[in-house]
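User: My collaborator and I are trying to settle a disagreement about how two of our proteins should look. Neither of us wants to argue from intuition anymore, so we agreed to look at predicted structures for both before our next call. Could you fold the first one, then the second, and keep them clearly separated?

Assistant: That sounds like a sensible way to settle it. I'll keep them separate. The first protein:
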Amino acid sequence: QVQLVESGGGLVQAGGSLRLSCKVSGLTSYQYPMGWFRQVPGKERERIACISWSGSSAYYHDSVKGRFTISRDNEKNTLYLQMNDLKDEDTAVYYCAADPGIQVMVTTSYCGGVFEYWGQGTQVTVSS
């Protein structure tokens, strides 16, 4: 059974930092792309960062570029999202996703395709 479990969310003041983690279990290989998404009530889920299996390619949505960093530790089967200079508009539920079927393509300017497995989400609230 494949499971993705996010952690690290919470309440932070504007300008502060948080690091989200996503632990993956139930997959025999780590050679697949992964991503971070976020969603606020009433809006569509937003794709904010993606990373190739090796970590050599990373994509960022314009809204987080320069402030967020996606990374992964394949030995620990864990995906990370370092979030700096947080703003009110970053308040959302954050989800990690994995694509072991390798339908997702990740370049520095593009992240397209459908992720197969999702975590349950972790709330990030930024207060001003």
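The second protein, kept apart from the first:
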Amino acid sequence: QVQLVESGGGLVQAGGSLRLSCAASRSISTMGWYRQAPGKQRELVATMTTDLRPNYADSVKGRFTIFRDNAKNTVYLQMNSLKPEDTAVYYCYARGWRNTSNWGQGTQVTVSS
């Protein structure tokens, strides 16, 4: 089982920025972020493979940037130009080398208008 430790959520005004980070307890394959707003299903935000290929949801393209440090087994999500609709619990996701799915505990991001 992979342990994931998230940090960086919080409250920010619309147009502001936040950076999330997620550290895995060991080497991992694809890492990334999903989010879940109240009353909605969990959705993809962004993921990145070990060879640093990113994948973004259309709703965050041009505003969010995902990057990772493989030496530290850590993935980051830089969120700029935040909107109230970005408010959600953000979950770190990590796929193990045997295609197992691992999730962090979630961190709240709240964007006020």
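Some points you might bring to the call about the second protein. The longest strand covers residues 88-95. The mean pLDDT is 96.
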